[in-house]
Amino acid sequence: MKKNLLGLLLNWVCLSAWAQPTAPSSATITARITELGTSRPVPFVSGYMKRGRNGNTADENGLLSLPIKQLPDTLLLSEVGYEPITVPIGNPPTAPLTVEMRAVTGQLAEVVVTGYRDPGKALMKKVIANKRTNDPQRLTRWTRNNYLRTEVDIENLSANQKRKLLTTMLRVYQQYQNDSSARTSLPIFFREQYRKEYHTRSPQSDAAYLVSEQNLGLQTDELGPRLDRFNVPINPYDGIIAILKTSFVGPVSDIGLAVYQFDKPDTLIENGQYRYRLAFRPRSVTENGFVGTVLIEDGSYAIREVSMQTNAGANLNFIRSLGIEQTFLPIDDTERGTAWVMTRNALRYGFENGLGLLGLPTRIDSASRTVSIQSTSVYGNYQINPAGVTATNFALTEQTTPTAATFTDAYRLTPLTIRERAIYQAVDSLKNNRQFRNTTRMAAFITSGYWDVRNKVRFGPYSSLFSSNLTEGLRLRTGFWTMEGFDPRWCLWGYVAYGTLDRRFKETIGIKYVPNRSPYRKYELTLKNDYDALTNYDDVLDNDNLFTLALRKPIPVYQTFLQQIRFSHERDLSPLWSVKSYYSYGSMTPTFQFSYAPSDEVVNVADSSIARLNTLCNSEVGVTFRYARNERTIILNYDKLRLYTQYPIWQFHVAAGLPLYRNTYFDYWKLSTSLSQEMPAPLKGSFYYNLTGGVVLGTVPLLLLHIPRGNPNYVADKYAFYGMSPYEFAADRYVSLLTRYSLGGLILDRIPLINKLGLRERLTANLFWGSLTQTNRDFNKINAFRVTGSVPYAEAGVGVENILNLFSIDAIWRLNYLDGPGAARSTRFGIYTGLKLQF
């Protein structure tokens, strides 16, 4: 019985196989798919064999290839934007088929198909292949107008909370209940600016001047210069996009195909023009990338629109997310044909709240109050290759004084929304509201460190009220500045300090005159009677602050008391070049052992009959030329602060000693040059280097030689040698290299639990080589210092930044010069901490 049943089953299987139509195992159908009426290829068409149940997707040239499993069968073709079509297949095809599909006008729904190719990736390859043509940065020269709106909001406020905070503004907001955002956010800053801008590609540089601006006239207007750093120029065609010194891989990057995942594109037809909307996201949540969509023009494969935001796993310190919306349109370029330019750039920063401000993982909900910054630029009136216009004469001849032009509706390249008009309506009520005035004044004080009085006088910063050192003991300091409300061009500034140990008052007073801000020009006269506690670098804390109070190394004090008069002049020669010149005369009295013989000639320092001095008087004149491309700057306290550029910065400095007076003895020359850069580094971080070389010509005492910057504190300082003490080394021929590589969380973001803290690792390596001529060795033999010789001083370390979104810690090892003279004041190993609001 079992044998009979088995035989029946075998017979049924054989009959079924014989009855099933088959096709040769190697049979393949190939189709070229074109558009009806135009014969242009239709890319990414989905093909499906109805009976064989197998499918594939056509390539970007409209070529489709499918294996045939059985015959007869039916080929089903479908693509978004086209009518579906069926093609009967009776016999194995002997030649490629040509199939025409009819286009459907209007936006079409997405079709989900099964295929073995990645049409989104194939489309992005086309965009990448054409980005050199479509990238707006490839344009040779252009000018344009820029209308910029910046707004700061407190988000997620309920009506009751807003009533408690500001009743008057709530009443104004009731005029536009149709705007839902009015019920959840409260603006504390609003500014409009109208600028004219110039760009040239070779050498790449940008120039701009402010025609007019309009603020609310509130205390928070002082936040404006500090908010400018958030208006980041983002180009979606860049492979690596730098956002606040953090690197992101762009979706149009050559390596973006490996970093991003692309969906199947949507096809849209508008006025007979085909466009593709393509969604993308990083393959890994730990990547510094973007999530969003791009709208791509058919044929040119240019980007028309970008809507994206930073990946949820991106490590941006206090910033929870950054949203980016951009629009591009084609214009005529007389040199290169059709070109694409940006017409709108909208950025929206959402900041952490609650414990998130301290870098601790926390969940945000609708009841949590947060702060957001919205910056929207609308560009118009593009002039391509304007005749006779250069970066220099554009900035010098066309600029106007910002206060000269009253802001009018003509400057608004896009009209105000209902909500934005209501903000202006509320200003008069806000100015008379004591609670709002006090709140905004305190917010400005905490953010800037200064207390302003009616835009007339500024006091501070509060970080320098208390500090300490071994010479002065507890040091108290308070400073002041006159502001633009007192005079827009003249500034009187100064400070007074007192030490509880030396019981001595110290003071500095200065006058600044700024006749122009664009291009910048400043004259300054300073009278100083204080120690050299301040730094020359804008982004480093000086020694006169609370943070260094308990972090001083156990080494002798290396300070110099200065009694000095100094006149300086600073100006922008062009958008690329600036120059600083100065003349100074005064005395320097070190707190450490120092002496010299008052003679221009080399003398025998062992001769006890020669009178020696420990106070050095000197007269010096100098000039520094500086070259920087596309540098972001702000003007604060009448000074132009250089914030950031991703391009190299070159400086050349020359100074000369002028023995003009009876107590100035030394005639010398100092020449130095430096190249520095903080550039985006794949895949997440940034790399900083500063290469400097110089020479001192002449026989001079220790204080006039080149003294590499040593670090007297356990405080991070990227401009100093961590393990070196001040005045430990000296040279009249020298080369130094300072480097820091911030990895941006490349490793720590991949460690479970640790990645929730947003920590970022970094590496440090520094070198210094210096030599001293025999005449300077003999002349300074009585003073204690070191010369490196043929082997450079070296140090290296590892560190972690973004601890609680505020602190950094670096472990630094000094690699050589550990023994011999001065070893007692060297630091072989140290843990250095930093405090900085850095994004």
TrEMBL record:
Keyword Signal recorded: yes
Keywords noted in UniProt: Plasmid, Signal
Secretion signal, residue range per the UniProt entry: 1-19
Protein name: Carboxypeptidase-like regulatory domain-containing protein
Native species: Fibrella aestuarina BUZ 2
